[in-house]
Amino acid sequence: MSSPSPDHEPASAGFSALALKPEVLRALTDVGYESPSPIQAATIPPLLEGRDVLGQAQTGTGKTAAFALPILSRIEMRPGKPQALVLAPTRELAIQVAEAFQRYAAHMPGFQVLPIYGGQSYGPQLQALRRGVHVVVGTPGRVIDHLDRGTLDLSELRFAVLDEADEMLRMGFIDDVEKVMQTMPPQRQVALFSATMPPPIRKIAQRHLKEPVEVTIKAATTTAANIRQRYWWVSGMHKLDAMTRILEAEPFDAMIIFARTKQATEELAEKLQARGLAAAAINGDIAQPQRERVIQQLKDGKLDILVATDVAARGLDVERISHVLNYDIPYDTESYVHRIGRTGRAGRSGEAILFVTPREKGMLRAIERATRQPIEEMKLPTVEAVNDRRIERFKQNISDTLAMGGLEQFQQLIEQFEQAHNIPAVEIAAALARIAQGDRPLLLEPPTKREQREHSRERDARPSHAHDGEARRPAREPRHRDGDQRDFAPRQVRPHATEAGKRTYRIEVGHEHGVKPGNIIGAIANEAGLEAQYIGRLSIRGDYSLIDLPDGMPGEIFQHLKKVWVNQQSLRISEWDGKDDTVGERPPHKPGFKPAHARGHGGKPKPHGHGGGKPGGGKPPRRK
Q: What is the number of alpha carbons within 13 Å of residue 511 lying toward its C-beta?
């Protein structure tokens, strides 16, 4: 393996100096790319020369273009078997990469790229493979399925990419990656990209890459100093109401609001639209043309708010974005850094706001430690401040309309009405303003005494600053599910009670394997094609975990989950027998307390699933 190269700087001459195909350069001009990022400048030349590349770079550094552009420049535009395969850890990333290929190949007529992932029916994928595709972008599990079925033929493969290899390791896909690599022709070019290089990833590189060019791009470990970071301690007020109040009182040009799920982005965008705000959602389900239209509307000032998931917002660079609001706290510190990096671009100042619930205070501290910057608490704008802004905007709208002119016809109508009904013009203007305002009240109502008391209690429950030592525990902090991140001890182990309409399964991975809730939920959601909202209660124990999945889950999904790995451990999923061995090994329950599965059943384990039958009886909601 060749020695690592030093960090690289962007090529000053731009993409035209990189010997890319003219059609590809035209596409880059269309999308407004001017000069390559460090990872692109360092990796595109060796990839164009046919060299293997081992790239270490964080998400959001431009890795997709770093491998997509040279592949498109060297691919043969003939129909047939796939010439390139990109392995990605998640459905969302596979879609994003496939969209990027399509975008960069806009001037290559006949080019075909196919994303394949779990949760999507096989029919369209099989039809596309039969017709012939140039590039396949897929998650390891679904690629293995196609290889086993004989529907994916890699005999003519020329290029292979492992994208976010460490994430595939974390999600337990590394054995699948090995299997896929072994089915490839020996004479193929390989590019491996990973944010970190743990030993298993280094071993894959040694086995499957031939004298690779090593590129290391150091990502900023701290957030930009020109971004002011604040958090709001989520109190009794609903998050949506609080966000609306912030949006009204906080001067901003354009804003991205981050939510965890695709459904949440759409629901939030609809609710903001209903409140009179120019908002739209982008997520992994949004078609590329629509995504581009929405982003262009944001650039043109026709939209002010974009509600997005992490993956959908990657690579988004719009000068107007002055604020980033984290409606849902991210699962990891790196995601937080990438999120708020959407503002404060090119030296401009930016604002980042983070909503934090009591159970998420540990994550707040983790973000501060990782970014080495304190995040200041923000006060929710008062009712008076919001009303002052509303009145100010109301008056400004009048001034703007007067300045536009063209009011002669309306003036005549007002004069006629005033004379005919003997009503002063000021009263007529007030009536017209009432019509224009519609059902939405002009002013907010002041808080009731009860709301003031609740706010006072929540204020007392706030954590002290992360650098001032241990926070006070909220007086009424909500009880946590097993497996939630907490910063106090000891952990109280609660019995697992199956949720209604679901069935409990046991998986052979737990705290001893270093697993976190996100690892399990992410792997199951991705491989089973289930939206995370349909995955129920998760209880992580010592060497196993219990998880609730929809009752009547199709048998093929159940069989597929048996092959899934998390944190280098096979799930080995099986139906739960009602025994929760860990309960009772920690501090005992209060006298007289019965486990949930025993209440009302004479001490016998409650049959889980509530619907009876074996897996395969019905179909839960699936990803679209």
A: 11
